[in-house]
Design goal:
Strand order of the largest sheet: 5-2-1-6-7-8-11-12
GO molecular function: 2-dehydropantoate 2-reductase activity; NADP binding
CATH class of the largest domain: Alpha Beta
Radius of gyration: 19 Å
Shape: globular
Organism: Pseudomonas mangrovi
Structural class: alpha/beta
Number of helices: 12
Enzyme class: oxidoreductase
CATH superfamily of the largest domain: NAD(P)-binding Rossmann-like Domain
Number of strands: 12
Function: Catalyzes the NADPH-dependent reduction of ketopantoate into pantoic acid.
Catalytic activity: (R)-pantoate + NADP(+) = 2-dehydropantoate + NADPH + H(+)
Strand content: 15-25%
Bound molecules: nicotinamide-adenine-dinucleotide, ketopantoate
Helix content: 40-55%
Order of helices and strands: EHEHEEEEHEHEEEEHEHHHHHHH
Distance between the termini: 36 Å
């Protein structure tokens, strides 16, 4: 069965290159004919690992291709996920399996609602990759890929093992997603506002602690008490363990790219309002970040 990977960016390329080099059938879905032509001219995906570069000639195609899709990795940003799935929805076979590799919360539900004929499986990754050039990706950090839904683990997980893609199947995926969401809400926006690396936030615990207290309240009211346990302590651990890193949001802002704010603080604000949970600090942080983005001419959604 073919793996279709939609999105030739950092993680999509990382997955497609590893699946392809393991000899598994993969098709990379590119955005438009110009991108497809550029991809073909590049001769495939180049993956740089420990300073060694290797090109993998994974075949490319467009969303308008007629090949039915049985298994899809949706590897775009959260704000592109709905449009991306819509572009291939008529190609999805009934019972097709769709892996949703987006940070934050909200896009998973948007996609699952859009394609009820598919089995949507959320995926949360702590692997790190970045684009050095078009179709040239640096594998920057080992990590784990957590995935799962309420059904039995699928047969094809063994293909991930074959491709050397680390994974952990879990029946507790909502807890994982909410926990990561809360960590990212507590860390990423403040790194942007203080224009600092993760570790420097350890000097701003007076801001982080009350923020975590609000996030804990929000998670508890959202029925996600397990994701709320010892949140503040884990935020501190993450800040210590990733002290030298720029958060993903900080990297986006520095590079002048759109952020996933709507799927972090935007989702938190909407959720707090819907559940009538007071969240003044989260709301204020959201407004400060919006103002910061606006002042730099970056999209506010
Ligand atoms: P990216 O921006 O590098 O890649 C996304 C790709 O999807 C881009 O090439 C874009 O052109 C393409 N795309 C968007 N819409 C499309 C469409 N309709 N048709 C075809 N292609 C389309 O993003 P990324 O870094 O790979 O991140 C993907 C998700 O994974 C994000 O939610 C991110 O937060 C998350 N994530 C990334 C990393 C990382 O290290 N890069 C780590 C953990 C989680
Ligand atoms: O996930 C992250 C991100 O930057 O998005 C953290 C955990 C904050 C590490 O940088």
């Amino acid at each position: 069965m073919t793996w279709h990977v939609l999105g030739g960016g950092s993680l999509g390329a990382l997955w497609a290159a590893r699946l392809g080099r393991a000899g598994l059938p993969v098709q990379l879905i590119l955005r438009n004919p110009q991108r497809l032509a550029a991809y073909r001219a590049a001769g495939g995906l180049t993956l740089v690992e420990q300073d060694a570069a290797q090109t993998h000639p994974v075949p490319g195609q467009l969303a308008t291709d007629s090949q039915p899709i049985e298994r899809l990795l949706l590897a775009c940003k959260a704000y592109d996920a709905l449009a991306a799935i819509s572009s291939i929805e008529t190609r999805l076979r009934p019972g097709a399996q769709v892996l949703l590799l987006q940070n934050g919360l909200g896009s998973q539900e948007q996609v699952a609602t859009r394609v009820p004929q598919a089995r949507c499986i959320a995926l949360s990754s702590t692997e790190g990759a970045f684009r050095q050039d078009d179709f040239r990706i640096v594998f920057a950090g080992q990590g784990q890929n957590w995935l799962g839904d309420a059904q039995a683990p699928p047969e094809w997980l063994k293909e991930l093992a074959l491709a050397g893609i680390p994974y952990q199947w879990t029946g507790q995926m909502p807890t994982r997603l909410w926990r990561k969401f809360a960590l990212n809400c507590a860390i990423n926006p403040l790194t942007v506002l203080h224009d600092c690396r993760n570790g420097a936030l350890l000097e701003h615990l007076d801001e982080i602690q009350p923020l975590c207290a609000e996030l804990v309240e929000l998670l508890n009211h959202a029925g996600q008490a397990d994701a709320a346990v010892a949140l503040y302590e884990q935020v501190i651990q993450v800040l210590q363990a990733t002290a030298a890193n720029l958060s993903s949001m900080q990297q986006d802002v520095r590079a002048g790219r759109r952020t996933e704010i709507d799927y972090l603080l935007g989702y938190a604000s909407t959720c707090a309002a819907r559940l009538q949970v007071p969240a003044p600090r989260l709301q204020q942080l959201h407004l400060r970040l919006l103002e910061h983005l606006r002042a730099r001419g970056l999209p506010c959604a």
